[in-house]
């Protein structure tokens, strides 16, 4: 899968998330010397208050 397609897929998935309360979104793409690719999307929500 090429980089543009991975990014487009990540954007489609992110658009389906509830944005209420999102703390951070981090997208990383790493190309390794052996030709492998690492693509990660991390969405962080703050901890819920325990009552």
Architecture overview:
The chain has 1 helix and 2 strands. The chain has 51 residues and is α+β, with helices and mostly antiparallel strands. The chain has one domain (3-44). The protein has a two-stranded antiparallel sheet. The longest helix is centred in the N-terminal third of the chain and has 13 residues, at 3-15. The mean pLDDT is 86.
Task: Quickly list its features.
51 residues; alpha+beta; two-stranded antiparallel ribbon; 1 helix
Sum this structure up briefly.
By secondary structure, this protein is of the alpha+beta class. The protein has one helix at 3-15, and strands at 24-31, 37-44. The protein has one domain (3-44).
Mean pLDDT value: 86
Largest sheet, strands/sense/barrel: 2 strands, antiparallel
What amount of the residues lies in strands?
Answer: 25-35%
Shape designation = elongated
Number of helical segments with 4 or more residues: 1
Oligomer: single chain
Q: Identify low-pLDDT runs.
A: none
What is the percent of helical residues? Answer: 25-40%
Topology as a string of helices (H) and strands (E): HEE
Briefly note the structural class of the backbone: alpha+beta
Gyration radius, rounded = 14 Å
Distance between the termini: 45 Å
- The spatial strand order of the largest sheet comes to 1-2
